[in-house]
Write a structure and sequence with these properties.
The protein has eleven helices and eight strands. The protein has 256 residues and is α/β, with parallel strands linked by helices. The chain has one domain: TIM Barrel. An eight-stranded parallel β-barrel has the order 1-2-3-4-5-6-7-8, surrounded by six helices. The longest helix has 18 residues. Bound molecules: 2-phosphoglycolic acid.
């Protein structure tokens, strides 16, 4: 089955209104010169979702590009949840994508598998396309627990939210030891994990599971993107640091 590749940036807690505007202008100019040939997205801090979306809406829409958020509340109904931003609000602000369960959310902000599953369900219910992050720590890898960890994280979502919540979205394999370290995982690390994820998805539902993009994330940059994107079951990338620069991000999107 052929899946359109998807490359999504993750700004984390970086950026400013000025950075959003200049990134948008540079990325647009590059895409208008030569379309990247894949779907693209940029996930930014929630306050920048609307300004980013406004730069790509209506007549200024860029084919295949969607703005996104980096996390979402697990609460679906409005109410007394000070500081939370719901999926419906992110949709209202123009978000298409939403990263859910990024390892920084799990490790620094205590998000459990159960919370992540509720967030995926909330994102899907509001019409956001979730990008579910899974991945093992270095300790888990060294203890031979990579497969077990990734499947636990994935099964928590498939069990509670159902595979249909991921249809139209993506799963991102992000080994924690490769995030922000400059050292991406090698082909021999990536291939078996992506195969395990694909098989869990297709076991849940053959058709939906075949259609879900599996992204790799962790120190993806222009220099290593082509090698990573050509691996079997790698349908794109989730890009942190290198996405802050529109030129680098575009080079990753066009790497073949
Ligand atoms: P990185 O981050 O590309 O800076 O390693 C990836 C991520 O955290 O999504």
């Amino acid at each position: 089955m052929s899946r359109t590749p998807l490359v999504v940036g993750n700004w984390k807690m970086n950026g400013s209104l000025g950075a959003v505007a200049s990134w948008a202008a540079s990325f647009r100019a590059l895409c208008e010169e030569a379309a990247p040939g894949c779907e693209t997205g940029l996930c930014v801090p929630s306050v920048y979702v609307q300004p980013l979306a406004a730069l790509f809406s209506g007549e200024r829409a860029l084919p295949g590009f969607g703005p996104g958020a980096e996390t979402v509340s697990d609460r679906e109904e409005p109410g007394a949840f000070t500081g939370e931003v719901s999926a419906a609000m992110l949709r209202d602000a123009g978000a298409c994508w939403c990263i859910v369960g990024h390892s920084e959310r799990r490790t620094l902000f205590g998000e459990t598998d159960e919370v992540v599953a509720r967030k995926v369900a909330a994102a899907h219910a509001a019409g956001l396309r979730p990008i579910l992050c899974v991945g093992e720590t270095l300790e888990e890898r060294e203890a031979g627990k990579t497969r077990r960890t990734v499947l636990r994280q994935l099964d928590a979502v498939l069990g509670a939210a159902g595979i249909s919540a991921l249809a139209g979205g993506a799963v991102a394999y992000e080994p924690l030891w490769a995030i922000g370290t400059g050292k991406a995982a090698g082909a021999e690390d990536i291939k078996p994990v992506h195969a395990v994820i694909r098989s869990a998805l297709t076991q849940a539902d053959r058709t939906i599971g075949e259609g879900i993009r599996i992204l790799y994330g962790g120190s993806v940059k222009p220099a290593n993107a082509a090698g990573i994107l050509s691996l079997p079951n790698v349908d794109g990338a989730l890009v942190g640091g290198a996405s802050l620069d529109a030129g680098n991000f575009y080079r990753i999107c066009t790497a073949r």
